[in-house]
């Protein structure tokens, strides 16, 4: 299983000693050998690689990776450079424009957010092509529960953005008084109009961070020339 070469490696090594993660590793080896699985194997832990735990300011929880060719690269809601922006991410951009009243131009790669302290975490880290939630029973949720538990040991201010029922399942693990939980429906076209639009989460997250002496996230940075 891939390592991150940062502060998440201790958790990964600890979990590798447990039977469930060894079972998951064997199952994944079969899946990658016989099917099209996303993201590429070397990018499964990309969110952890890009955002070491001591740098985490905001956690955005997704569901599982995009299941189309060339989209997923290991960070929730993010796609590779040059890939068409998916509907949920487009709705996130619409909400940002509404909150900040500033039109901005960017592609769908959110690596700059990740480097700014936003952990873009899918509770399920892999998926079979064309089959959303196909890896729901492999054991990833137990591993990502451990990630949340590890973050809950951190004293720095952290904001959790829980959008949709899958993300909200993690709420019971969040108990640190230094952390803030914001909940709303998912940004997908099926639910965005039922409470995602107008939730104000990007501004509220930054207001919380600033109130606790932490540099806010530059959500509206342009990535297009």
UniProtKB/TrEMBL annotation:
PANTHER family: URACIL-DNA GLYCOSYLASE (PTHR11264)
Alphabetical list of NCBIfam families matching this protein: PRK05254.1-1 (NF003588), PRK05254.1-2 (NF003589), PRK05254.1-4 (NF003591), PRK05254.1-5 (NF003592), ung (TIGR00628)
Similarity field: Belongs to the uracil-DNA glycosylase (UDG) superfamily. UNG family.
Keyword DNA repair in record: yes
Residues the record marks as active site: 64
Main localisation: cytoplasm
Subcellular location: Cytoplasm
The UniProt record lists the keyword Oxidoreductase: no
Domain Uracil-DNA glycosylase-like, chain residue ranges per copy: 49-209
One GO location term (cellular component): cytoplasm
Protein name: Uracil-DNA glycosylase
Annotated catalysed reactions: Hydrolyzes single-stranded DNA or mismatched double-stranded DNA and polynucleotides, releasing free uracil
Species, as recorded: Faecalibaculum rodentium
Cited function: Excises uracil residues from the DNA which can arise as a result of misincorporation of dUMP residues by DNA polymerase or due to deamination of cytosine.
GO biological process, one term: base-excision repair, AP site formation via deaminated base removal
The enzyme's E.C. designation: 3.2.2.27
Alphabetic keyword roster: Cytoplasm, DNA damage, DNA repair, Hydrolase
GO MF annotation terms: uracil DNA N-glycosylase activity
């Amino acid at each position: 299983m891939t390592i991150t070469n940062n502060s998440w490696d201790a958790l990964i090594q600890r979990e590798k000693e447990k039977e469930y993660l060894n079972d998951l590793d064997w199952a994944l080896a079969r899946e990658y050998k016989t099917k099209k699985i996303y993201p590429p194997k070397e990018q499964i832990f990309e969110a952890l690689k890009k955002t070491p735990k001591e740098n985490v300011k905001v956690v955005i929880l997704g569901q599982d990776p995009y299941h189309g060719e060339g989209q997923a690269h290991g960070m929730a809601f993010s796609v590779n450079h040059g890939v068409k922006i998916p509907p949920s991410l487009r709705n996130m951009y619409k909400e940002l424009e509404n909150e900040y009243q500033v039109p901005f131009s960017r592609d769908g790669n959110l690596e700059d957010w990740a480097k700014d302290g936003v952990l873009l975490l899918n509770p399920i880290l892999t998926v079979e092509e064309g089959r959303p939630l196909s890896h729901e029973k492999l054991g990833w949720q137990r591993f990502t529960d451990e990630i949340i538990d590890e973050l809950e040991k951190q004293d720095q201010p952290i904001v959790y953005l829980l959008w949709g029922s899958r993300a909200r399942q993690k709420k019971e693990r969040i108990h640190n008084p230094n952390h803030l939980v914001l909940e709303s429906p998912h940004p997908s076209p099926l639910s965005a109009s039922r409470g995602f639009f107008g939730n104000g989460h990007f501004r509220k997250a930054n207001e919380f961070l600033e109130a606790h002496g932490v540099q806010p996230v530059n959500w509206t940075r342009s990535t297009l020339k």
